[in-house]
Each structure stands twice: as C-alpha cells, then as structure tokens.
Amino acid sequence: MLENDLILKAAACQAVERTPVWLMRQAGRILPEYRKVRSSVSGFKELVTTPELACEVTIQPVDILGVDAAIIFSDILVVPEAMGLPYELIEAKGPLFLETIESQADVEKLRVAEGPELQYVYDALKLVKKELNNRIPLIGFAGAPWTLLSYMVEGQGSKTFSKARKFLYQQPEAAHLLLDKIADSTINYLKSQIAAGADMLQIFDSWAAVLSAEQYRVFGLPYLEKICNAIDEVPIIVFPKGANYTFDELKELNCQVIGVDWNASTEDVRNLQAAGKAVQGKYDPAGLYASRKEIAKGAQQMLASMGPVGHIANLGHGVYPDTPLDNVRCFIDTIKEYQHVVSV
Ligand code: CP3
Q1: Whose CA is nearest to atom 5 of ligand 1?
Q2: Are 280 and 314 in contact, with CB atoms under 8 Å apart?
Q3: Distance from the CA of 268 to the center of ligand 1, in angstroms?
C-alpha cells in the first residue's frame, strides 16, 4: 500500500486532507543535481536509456522538493524511435528527427512498437518503484498520437506546426494510418509501463491547440479514445494543452483526469468537475518568476478556485528550466500547507 496516495484519491474525486501537487518537468534542468548527472553523460539520450541514471533523476525532485508523485524520467519521442524513426536531442535547440514522414509509403514502413524495444523504460520504472518503497505513486507517460505525428512529420519543434497540419489536409488517409499505428504502439507501451509498476499514466497532447475543434474531432480525439478504452488498470490523466475548445467532448473520454493550462477558466474547471472528471493544473509556469509573496498568493487563489475535491495541483505546462528553485519550493510548500475552507 502507498503511504501517500493523495494523487490517486484526488484523481478518483475522493475527499483528501490536502490538495496533492507535482510538477510537469520536475525531473529536469531546474535542479542543480540533475544538471550534475546530465553533465556526466554524453547526452540526454544516454540518461534516458540508462535505467540507473533515469531512476536517479526521477527520484531527485521527490527527495529535494517533496512532491506527491514521481514521474518517470524519459521522453515522448522514445515511441517514434521504437516505431523506426530515431531522434536526437540537439543541445540548446531541441529534438530532431533525421528522417521525417512525408508519404503513405513512409508510414507503411513504420512498425507498431510491441513493447520490448522500450525495455530500458520498464527497467527504469522497476528501479524507481523499488527506490520509492511505496512512499508516493509513480506516473508513467506517453505522447498523444497527434503530438507525436507533429514531430514525425515536422522533424523538429515548430511555432505553427504548418507542415504537420498540411499533412492532415493533403494526405488524410496516411495521417489516419500513422495515428492508428502510434495509438497501437502507445497502448502496448503503456500496458508494459503498468506491468513495470506505473501507478498512474499521463498522455501529453502538447500541440492540441494548433488544431481546430473540427480537426481535433477527426485527428485527435478518436485516438485518445482508443488508448483510454484499452487501459483500465490505472487512472489516466489526459492533457490536451490549451485545447479548451474540446472540453465538452473530453467529459465523455474514458479517463479520470483532464489536464488544463492557465487559459482554462474557473467555469471550465467546474464544468469538468461536475461531469465527474478530476482536473490537473493550472498555474502559469511564468508565474513562478514573480516574487515569492505573489507566488504564495497566486497558488492560494488557484486552490480556492479549483476547490477541495477533484484537483491535482500542477503548472499549466512544464516548469521552465531557469525558474529560481526557491520559487518552485514556495509554490509546492504553499499548496501543501493550504487548508481548504469547507462550508458545512
Ligand atoms: O516531467 C518530467 O519531469 C519527466 C520527464 C519528461 C521529459 N520530457 C524530459 C526531458 C517528460 C514528461 C517529457 C515530455 C515531453 N517531451 C513533451 C510533452 C510535454 C511538453 O513539454 O509539452 C514534449 C513535447 C517533449 C519533447 C521534447 N523533449 C522537447 C521539446 C525537448 C527540448 C526542450 C526542453 O524542454 O528541454 C525535450 C528534451 C527534454 N525532455 C529535456 C528533459 C528534461 C531536456 C533535456 C536536457 O537538456 O537535459
């Protein structure tokens, strides 16, 4: 049994003694301890593929920041690689695929990842589980099919993702085949993460907001649905960043938690909660550059507006690498100390 299962309780919309908190990208460059491990290896990929090191940097924020969940140190791009499209992480630039997807023939050449290709992730999960010793839950994750398609077609990050969107308009059949192969790979991958010990899963749809509501209905939601319907062993957090246009449809998705960013209104959140979903988020990560007094006030305001039930506190996106660590601590500590006023 877990000593601290606040996040699982909040995901199930059960009463909690306080709101739980963790941060997207907590295992990363905000911590000097991470940078030390990172500078001792040849590159990011060595860190990701060496289970002992991935385990070490996964545990760091647990011990140093006192968050209520660990998230396995990995990347969403390991799935395209397992399908046959290797990536590199270019220093100070970001991810890069040397080959990209341009046609139906390219999609046909890709394989559905069966799971074993990503054994290094499962080995890391097992090590983390052991190291955590049931202190807190361990979150596994994957990228959503649309976000992974964007990287596989663009080859790298983009401001507009116009190449990926062009692909949807010009080659919809190839796009559907690719999304389906990614979804099947992701199901295999997430099931193996559960077998290795993941207590909860998050699906990152980081670029959901570049699509229209109509396109998301065609190219985004059906594949999220396929993944969520295939997994019922652990709670799932679906995070379609910024895609507030699809909240009504998300209520029907077979998942427990919806991740929201700082553009979601209190009304949006209340509507999701009223439909039985827990909500994760939604503090603006740039808000952590403010004074600590303002951060404490802002965090308290967020907690009051999200309510005592069905909320997992987090940022609305990953913590920015140059955020002062004391400000991150202030945010986390404020949340852990906060007592909701419950009217009787
Ligand atoms: O949340 C965590 O602490 C767990 C680890 C994690 C990483 N990437 C480690 C990482 C998670 C959950 C991810 C997910 C991820 N990766 C997403 C979805 C979330 C999001 O931010 O929208 C995306 C789009 C990626 C792709 C990716 N990986 C990018 C764009 C970059 C470069 C930019 C950046 O954020 O640094 C990466 C590299 C990456 N992934 C780093 C880390 C810690 C930085 C590597 C380093 O230089 O040390």
Answers
A1: 73
A2: yes
A3: 27
User: What is the dihedral angle through the alpha carbons of 253, 258, 259, 260, rounded to the nearest 10 degrees?
Assistant: 100
| CB contact at 8 A, 186 and 112 | no
Residue among 173, 152, 130, 145 at smallest CA distance from 230 = 145
CA distance 70 to 23: 9
Which residues are the active-site residues?
A: 25, 29, 38, 75, 151
Closest-CA residue, ligand 1 atom 27, reads 95
Instruction: Give, in words, the CATH class of 6-337.
Output: alpha beta
Show the ligand 1 pocket: residues with CB < 6 angstroms. Answer: 24-29, 38, 44, 71, 73, 75-77, 89, 94-95, 141, 157, 204, 206, 318
pTM above 0.70, yes or no: yes
Nearest 5°: the CA angle 139, 208, 108 is: 85
Q: Which tens digits make up the pLDDT trace of 70-81?
A: 999 999 999 999
Cα 86 to ligand 1 centroid, rounded to whole Å: 16
Atom of ligand 1 nearest to the CA of 48: 9
From the CA of 340, how far away is ligand 1's center (Å)?
A: 33
Q: Are 164 and 150 in contact (CB under 8 A)?
A: yes
> Which element (helix H / strand E) includes 273?
helix 266-274
pLDDT (tens digit, 9 = 90+) per residue, 172-214?
999 999 999 999 999 999 999 999 999 999 999 999 999 999 9
Q: Which atom of ligand 1 is nearest to the CA of 202?
A: 12
Token pair of 306 as six digits: 């999200």
Q: Where are the domains of the chain?
A: 6-337
* Cα 79 to middle of ligand 1, angstroms: 14
In a 3-state reduction of DSSP, which class is residue 40? Answer: coil
Q: What is the CA radius of gyration of the chain?
A: 19
